[in-house]
Design goal:
With 975 residues, this protein is mainly β. The protein has 13 helices and 52 strands.
């Protein structure tokens, strides 16, 4: 993934501002070029790289066009004129950039900075300017197609700066960190720097989407159709001064193909061991003198990936040298007598004639909770978007965009077991020790009901519109957008405990529930009666209206001082309800506790771009120096006010090198899930935790979960410094390096994610521990309505009280480097390119409790590794293309177990062979066929002793994918 100086997209852009010629001195300086005859898009990219000037062009305009060779010293406008000769395209200046558009377009208006929002680069509110001082990582349409990846989630997951922890479709049931348990719709999020999905702001064409998950925990990027994406812009820098809340770690802005013209049909089929996937899409674009219309539809389906098809999808890790985590909830069952002695129910019998003498004393029957469950859900998704632009006379331009997505997913889940008390009233009752007391039966219900099922349905839609007015050299804009997202999760194939208790007391053997046999030995009518489930539903809404004015203030010696000022109002609301049919005789419907919740946010912002030095001033050692200053004030109806500034500086001492840096503050308002209270979120449970100070190695704790009262905003300070090197003598070489430093305070910690290590790391969690609690306190907590006891631990056995509620008690400090190196070379008709990009983190220090010392958690469980990198090499010749990509994730320490265990690095290779028929005649014209191999050598994820509160597995889905090798054939046809 590369940062390039050419930004794809932008049709119908206008003429430049009327500013002094000195402002464009750099653009008019001659640059030495040696461009062969090649595709026009590549020539424009090479010119942009050689000159350091941003040249904006839509891929669809350049597709299929050739450029002649160009050798010698040319100014940028002269070079563009020669490259575009005979193409019916022309180039116009927009600020400090150049825009390529159709020569006969009538959308040009004096002073226009671009009617397409693509001209507004992520990280700034000033049109025609870049994000001064910041690095913006851009992944264009061509690069997206070269990845061989099918979905937006997969594309963003490959970004080295993105950490896979949090709500993602692969982490369901594997982690509780970063609001992963809120992911009832099986969506996927972005987690830049590993600072949490709620610390990354995700936009679509600059607009906020309605949030997904319980309480609106994240933006679900997997709803966005990948075939409709023009490019993805990633700003890995704090940007609350520009965009407001959530932009602590950075911003991801997905730009759709709003300027597309023509027709394009795509089809893709992929298969891996155990499942396949299918993707089909159609996009249509029409243009006329005063506007254009684009419509797109995509269908995607993928089969479920079963744990049975992967060796690491098991709780029995002995084959990897690990422990056996299978639980003593089997079928046949395990019995625990009144005196605590354990007996295994024998196999091969139906429980109707079982005697105490048949039981196997001192043994337990176990079962693998991961058997017949899914590592990835089955998915069916429909997505569509519509984009319309219409000029309204010579001044006004209206834009409209609509988006719709519908996704259904199905996942087989592992059972969450509880011991069942059976009395002598049950006709199949057996007392192992002859006391006539109830026996505790540890039983796996999957033979009776099948694996627990989770069926999710997500429906999202959004409408946005804008009205822009050209006021001389200024531009005024009104914008509004509204979005909603509904999610539901239907859980089934679990026993209803109230109806099960009735069936266990039924004296009739023909209808009583039988827990004492091998397999399912209960009448079907009884199973249907006892079978239970639940429905969780949530709905989020988000409405934003805003106004902005931007343009030139006055001329400085180095150029034009430009400003953008504006204001926004946003309303957010979340609601939900639950239907429970797993605890009472009849289903109970209730509103999700603590919902509905809503808030209003009013904001005002301003941004200045100040050219301090230009090349025309002739200052020694300073060819160019730009300063940007931005600030944003926001008032929340529920959390008060905040102001956040940002300063950026870009310094070019000579043509080859640009030095840059930023300073700013950011914040994140607590999400609705962070402030929600009540039984729907709070709970109390006794658990067994590893304890090196205990003679048995284990202690029993009584843990409290949920949100602490008084949770407030999170705050951060961000610093970046870096350079971009583009040697004039090697015009196709670029190197970008960015150092970043983030200090995050008042962070809402989720200490329950580290619960298994509380007693192992007492120095870090001592403030959360209360040893030897008094009996009255324990009894009161055992009597609380939110109490549940999955392991049947007696109140008298409790050694510690543990406070695992979320609170503003964490701090984090992250430092590291992003790097991006790329080079292209043309050898006659052979075009070669290659590069490497990555993120190298030096430190990730944090403390989950304010009173605890900082601990460097870099390269540990639940946190980013120190290095993620992605390297590629490609070649194109006469319509053929080949590429190879290497993905590397460094090793780390599994600190979720004691003692910590090393985890190996993971390196995979992706390959693509493609053939473009741009020059072919007939029906093949405009066709591109590619064969893609993701994880070509089928490198399995490294082994991880991954114990979770209720299950286990042999890999870590936060840092590796369970898919393995996937082969896909894709056909793209432009009409």
């Amino acid at each position: 993934m590369r940062t390039t100086s050419i930004t794809t997209s932008a049709l119908a852009l206008a003429a430049s501002l009327a500013v002094p010629a000195a402002c464009y001195a750099q653009a008019d300086n001659a640059v030495l070029l040696d461009l062969p005859e090649q595709p026009l898009g590549r020539s424009i990219r090479d010119l942009s790289a050689a000159s350091g000037i941003t040249i904006i062009a839509d891929d669809t305009l350049l597709e299929g066009r050739k450029a002649g060779s160009l050798k010698g010293r040319y100014s940028v406008p002269d070079a563009l004129a020669r490259l575009l000769a005979g193409t019916a395209l022309r180039a116009e200046r927009v600020g400090a950039s150049w825009v390529v558009r159709p020569a006969n377009s009538s959308n040009a208006r004096s002073g226009d900075l671009g009617s397409d929002p693509a001209i507004l680069v992520t990280g700034t509110r000033i049109r025609g300017a870049g994000a001064t001082g910041s690095q913006v990582i851009t992944l264009g349409r061509e690069e997206i197609d070269r990845t061989g990846l099918a979905t937006t989630q997969q594309i963003l997951a490959a970004l080295p700066q993105n950490f896979g922890g949090g709500p993602n479709e692969g982490t369901i049931g594997f982690t509780q960190r970063n609001n992963a348990t809120a992911n009832i719709g099986f969506g996927s999020s972005v987690n830049l720097r590993g600072l949490g999905t709620s610390s990354t702001l995700t936009l679509v064409d600059g607009n906020r989407f309605a949030l997904g998950g319980i309480g609106g925990a994240f933006v679900d990027v997997s709803l966005i159709p990948a075939s409709a994406i023009e490019r993805i812009e990633v700003l890995p820098d704090g940007a609350s001064a520009i965009y407001g809340s959530d932009a602590v770690a950075g911003v991801v802005n997905v730009r759709l193909r709003n300027a597309f013209e023509g027709a394009e049909t795509r089809g893709r089929y992929g298969a891996a061991d155990g499942f396949d996937e299918l993707q089909a899409s159609q996009i249509l674009g029409f243009g006329w003198n005063s506007g254009h219309l684009v419509a797109s539809y995509e269908y995607f389906q993928r089969g479920r990936l079963s744990s049975n098809d992967r060796s690491f999808g098991t709780e029995d890790l002995r084959a990897f040298g690990g422990p056996d985590y299978r639980q003593a909830y089997g079928n046949p069952a395990t019995l625990v007598a009144a005196d605590g002695s354990v007996f295994a129910v024998p196999a091969g019998q139906d429980g109707t004639a079982l005697a105490a003498s048949d039981l196997i004393a001192g043994q337990s029957n176990t079962s693998d909770g991961r058997k017949d469950t899914d590592l990835l859900p089955r998915v069916r998704r429909h997505s569509a978007f519509l984009s319309l632009e219409q000029g309204l006379g010579s001044i006004l331009t209206a834009n409209f965009q609509g988006f719709f997505a519908d996704r259904r997913s199905s996942l087989r889940y592992f059972p969450i077991n509880s011991a069942i008390s059976v009395t002598p009233a049950n006709p199949f009752y057996v007392d192992p020790i002859g006391t006539g007391q109830p026996v505790s039966v540890r039983y796996d219900f999957r033979e009776d009901f099948g694996a627990p099922s989770y069926d999710a349905h997500v429906r999202a839609w959004a409408l946005s519109g804008s009205l822009a007015a050209d006021l001389g050299t200024w531009r005024a804009e009104l914008r509004a957008n509204h979005g909603q997202q509904r999610e539901s999760l239907v859980a089934g194939n679990v026993p209803n405990t109230a109806r099960l208790a009735q069936a266990l007391l039924d004296p009739d053997p023909a209808s009583a529930f039988n827990l004492f046999g091998d397999g399912s030995n209960t009448a079907q009518a009884t199973l249907d009666y006892v079978r239970g489930g639940s429905i969780q539903s949530t709905r989020t809404r988000q409405t934003t209206v805003g106004a902005k004015l931007d343009g030139p203030l006055f001329a400085l010696p180095a150029g034009i001082l430009r400003i953008a000022i504006g204001g926004e109002f946003r309303h957010e609301r979340v609601a939900g309800f639950n239907i429970y049919d797993d605890r009472t005789l009849e289903p109970v419907e209730e509103s999700s506790t603590g919902f509905p919740l809503s808030r209003d946010i009013a904001a005002g912002y301003a941004e200045l771009l100040v050219p301090l030095v230009s090349e025309a001033m002739g200052l020694a050692g300073i060819e160019k120096l730009d300063l940007s200053v931005a600030g944003r004030y926001e008032h929340y109806s529920d959390f008060g006010s905040t102001f956040n500034p940002k300063v950026g500086l870009a310094y070019r001492p000579f043509a080859d090198l640009t030095l840059r840096g930023t300073y700013g503050t950011s914040f994140r308002a607590p999400g609705f899930l962070d402030v929600r209270q009540g039984p729907g979120l709070s709970s109390i449970a006794p658990l067994n935790l590893s304890d090196p100070q205990s003679p048995t190695g284990v202690s029993q704790v009584l843990a409290r979960f949920g949100n602490d009262a008084g949770i407030g905003p999170e705050k951060a300070r961000t610093l970046t410094a870096g350079f971009d090197l583009r040697p004039v003598r090697v015009p196709r070489l670029h190197l970008g390096v960015t150092w970043f430093d983030i200090a995050y305070r008042d962070r809402i910690s989720n200490p329950s994610a580290e619960l298994q290590t509380y007693l192992v790391k007492r120095d870090q969690f001592e403030a959360l521990l209360t040893p030897n609690p008094d009996a009255a306190t324990v009894a009161a907590l055992y009597a609380d309505p939110t109490f549940f006891n999955p392991f049947g631990i007696a109140a008298s056995a409790i050694d510690y009280l543990v406070d695992s509620r979320n609170k503003n008690s964490a701090r984090a400090e992250v430092q590291g480097l992003d790097f991006d190196l790329g080079y292209t070379k043309d050898l006659g008709g052979l075009a070669l390119d290659g590069g490497v990009s990555g993120s190298w983190i030096f430190h990730f220090r944090q403390k989950l409790v304010t009173s605890a010392p900082y601990v460097d958690v870099l390269a540990t469980s639940g946190n980013p590794v120190d290095l993620r990198a992605r390297a590629f090499v490609g070649a194109r010749w006469n319509g053929w293309g080949v590429s190879l990509t290497v993905n590397h994730t460094a090793g780390y320490r599994n600190t979720a177990v004691a003692p910590a265990e090393p985890v190996s690095a993971w390196t995979t290779f992706d390959a693509q062979i493609s053939r473009s028929f741009d020059d072919a005649g007939g029906w093949l014209s405009g066709t591109r066929v590619s064969l893609n191999a993701v994880n070509l050598f089928d490198a399995g994820p490294p082994y991880v002793n991954n114990r979770t509160p209720y299950s286990a597995s042999g890999f870590d889905p936060e840092k590796a994918s369970p898919v393995g090798r996937l082969i896909a054939l894709q056909v793209i046809k432009a009409w």
